[in-house]
Amino acid sequence: FFFFLMIRRPPRSTQSRSSAASDVYKRQVIECAPVVTKTSEEFGTYCGLRSLTDTMAIQGKLCAPKTNYEQALGSSMMLILDKIIIDWWAFFITSFLAIIAGVAVLFWVRYGAKCMVWSSIYVFMGLGAVMAIVLCAIGNIAGGVLLLLMVALVGIMTYCFRNTINFMCGILSAAAEFIKQHVILVAIPVGAGFFNMIFFVVWIIIMMKIYYLGDAKQGTDLGAEHKTVIQVGGFTTILMLFHIFAQIWISIFLMHFAQWIICSSASIWYFSSGKEPFPVTQSLNRLLNFHIGTVAFGSLIIAIIKIVRAIVESALKNAEKERNGAAVLLFSCLKCCLGCIDRLVKFFGVHAYIENALTGKPFCDAAIDGFFLILRNAERFGVSMNLFELFEFFASLYIVILSLPITMLILMGLIKESTSLGFFILFAFIITFLIASLFSTLLIFSAETILHCYCIDYEISEQEGTNTAAYAPEVLREAIIEYKNAQEAKQQQ
Fold first, then answer.
1. For the chain, which has fewer Cβ within 10 Å, the N-terminal or C-terminal residue?
2. For residue 453, what pLDDT is reported?
């Protein structure tokens, strides 16, 4: 694949020695002039730079302005690199504390899921009420009243579906138990992210090589002899577009690779009643041998939707610049529809991977089975979709709140320079947020898979006349009994 992207375009057909020599000359290294012939003000009007002294060659073709700003930027990057190398212990402390906080939240979910979920719901509603009061206080009465009505609606819906919410707490507790038993699962998204970073670096390098397949030509905008530009032809443009699409596709593929392993591991764990010792390695083996094409096809669909969304958003911006009302309305509707389709495909894609892991069906057939399973259990999946999104946000927030203040206190005690301290605090926040997102995402994917497996298990039990989930792990059975009793009491009322 990368070799194909490195293929240079074929040489032009030449009619004479002079034209061939011209092509060779265009491929020669261009020397950049050391001094600009135009004044700084005239050049600043053209390219937005204030102080310009000379230029520098890039890849032997492009003359880029060399300014004090760029020199300062380069020295700043080297300074940041030096800080990272010298003070590596700060990043180790940050990562260690964030992981400890993630494990603490994981145990909180395992043994106190109801407390965490209901407290998150109450905090969310309380923040909404406070924001509504603030809006009324500053004079936005309509906005405040509307927000209060929305908070009241959330409260009513929460009360109506309280039994299902309690059952979802049991699902989250089972997901935390699954992750606790198989900690190696954390390495799957970390490895996918690592390979994604490596591929992105390689993609940048190849993209530069493709860009410099174009011709270097003298620019006439400023009348300066040193000014050169890269002119990209048709073949190079197509190659660049293909390379951009490939980057999006492979990036999504690596994320879905991790998703499939998580979903498959959780489904194996569920239907073995929590007794399978190696569900992660078994899932990895099955994926590499049988289901890699399913993941590639699912990620291809998401990549195509993202490309279409980007095209529509670009067209919308152009329509807004031209003040074309009809085009703006059309592209706005298309953007909204594509956004909804993107969310639906992502949601059903996860359940398609679960069905694929359970039954081995192709992606489309598995997606259809997952769709009808969700329709038959609309209440459970409807509550879980909104509740899990809220839980994912608050779980990440709790991890950041638990670890970041301690990290800041340690850094403030060990680092004396104010500039270095600010840099490390910012970087500590980024690392903590990434680790928090890792833990919360693992919990959500595992919980969605366990809920999916429970619905299948319950339907199988109904067909056999037992009306109970026969394969449910021990950690989930208490929540199932409580949920079943609450549903029976609700039907009697």
1. C
2. 92
